[in-house]
Design goal:
By secondary structure, this protein is α+β, with helices and mostly antiparallel strands. The protein has 2 domains: about 150 residues, no CATH class; about 200 residues, no CATH class. Helix content is about 25%, strand content about 25%. It contains 7 helices and 16 strands. Strands 7, 8, 9, 10, 11, 12, 13, 14 and 15 form a 9-stranded mixed sheet that branches. Strands 3-2-4-6-16 form a 5-stranded antiparallel sheet, covered by helices on one side. A hairpin with a 6-residue loop joins strand 2 and strand 3. Helix 1 crosses helix 5 and helix 2 runs antiparallel to helix 4. The chain starts with a helix and ends with a strand. About 40% of the residues are buried.
Length: about 400
């Protein structure tokens, strides 16, 4: 009888111990995402890293074009792109250092291996396919993986194992992401084809005397030259009663592949659209990587890619029409001045040009321009201004 009581006591003790173990494991299954690098962390890191690398590619290409276009081919054929690789690694270094590490090993190669988790190459705007090591270089591919879990935190390697057993992590999960800088329109203005003079063909950027652009209904018999003419555009978006033109400007939508396509344009003599674009230009939080500042921190220009169409005639008025995009124009808007009310509000604040800039009156002014035709080889070398995830 006593022997049976002893066995029963041992069984109870054993069950109690196992129950405690199972409760610990269950708690780890719930909280493991806070203690270790999750699969979502890895995927996000891969995307963040590739976008940072593509941004560095864009900056190098654009800086080369602005300073010495003759050196562009050397930049586009560089299959190492050291600055882009450094930017990609820096974008995720330091993440989760208190608990675990994300690894992006690289050997400056363009093939994914155990020792190399990063490539640069060519993303074809026509086929939408990426070729590691291909030229002209316009994209970056990144693969992330976990390092050994930090032994100083949690249960170390045992915790990593439990995370995988619980389903919080996958075994050998190594996500990949590819980002590119395809040429896409991001401006809400469409300029007239006459503005693209033959001497301003990409990669040559023309510095021009500051040119005041005109968006009023235009009559070629009596109005300013067509090269000074532009229309407002929502690109491929058709305004509706629910989403009006102002919404489409102020939402700062992603760039669009508009070359060779029909876009929606309008001529707005009331300057409502220009007020919105002015506010977007002088908002320091909008498209800041493509804005130039002087040494005093004053904005001197905003680089945008504008679609180029024929010259809409006076009949357009306030009615949206469709016009075919035949070129892209890389332009620098030097200033925008509109009197009266301000435009777009971001977090309750709208922005106006500094009064000292607007002594010359209302208008949109440009001082740099470079154009490229749709469908030509040079378009493959034309950098988009905003990196995008393509895979």
């Amino acid at each position: 009888m006593e022997e049976q009581e002893e066995e029963s006591g041992m069984d109870t003790t054993y069950i109690g111990i196992m129950l405690a173990v199972f409760l610990v494991i269950a708690a780890l299954a719930i909280d493991i995402g806070y203690l270790y690098v999750s699969d979502e962390d890895l995927q996000t890191a891969a995307e963040t890293s590739s976008l940072a690398g593509a941004k560095a590619l864009k900056e190098r290409i654009l800086n080369q074009v602005k300073t010495d276009a003759s050196g562009l081919q050397g930049v586009l054929s560089d299959q190492v792109q050291a600055s882009a690789r450094t930017a990609a690694i820096d974008a995720v270094s330091g993440l989760h250092t208190s608990v675990a590490l994300i690894e992006i090993a690289h050997k400056n190669g363009n093939r994914l291996t155990d020792e190399n988790n990063m490539t640069v190459g060519f993303w074809n705007i026509s086929t939408h396919k990426y070729t590691p090591g291909g030229t002209p270089v316009n994209a970056m591919q990144v693969r992330t993986r976990r390092t050994a879990e930090n032994e100083a935190v949690g249960l170390g390697a045992m915790g990593n194992f439990l995370a995988k057993m619980s389903g919080t992590q996958k075994f050998n999960y190594t996500p990949e992401a590819t980002s590119a800088i395809p040429p896409r329109a991001n401006a809400n203005i469409a300029i007239c084809v006459d503005a693209c003079e033959s001497s301003c063909r990409y990669p040559d950027i023309c510095s021009i005397p500051e040119r005041k652009m005109v968006s009023d209904p235009w009559d070629p018999r009596k109005d300013p030259p067509a090269k000074n003419h532009y229309a407002y555009t929502t690109l491929l978006h058709q305004p509706t009663a629910a989403i009006n033109f102002s919404n489409l400007i102020c939402l700062d939508l992603p760039p669009q592949e508009a070359c060779g396509k029909q876009i929606f344009t309008i001529l707005d003599p009331d300057n409502n659209a220009l007020r919105d674009i002015e506010s977007m230009m002088y908002n320091p939080n909008i498209d800041s990587p493509n804005k130039e500042y002087d040494k005093s921190g004053n904005l001197v220009g905003w680089w945008v890619i504008a679609p180029v169409t024929d010259c809409p005639s006076a009949r357009q008025g306030k009615v949206f029409e469709q016009h075919a995009v035949t070129k892209y124009a890389l332009i620098r808007i030097s200033r925008i001045c509109v009197s009266g009310a301000s435009g777009c509000q971001q977090t309750g604040t709208s922005f106006k040009a500094p009064p000292a800039l607007c002594s010359g009156g209302n208008g949109l002014y440009i001082d740099r321009i470079s154009c490229v035709n749709c469908g030509v080889q040079a378009l493959q070398q034309f950098p988009g201004l905003r990196p995008v995830l393509v895979d």
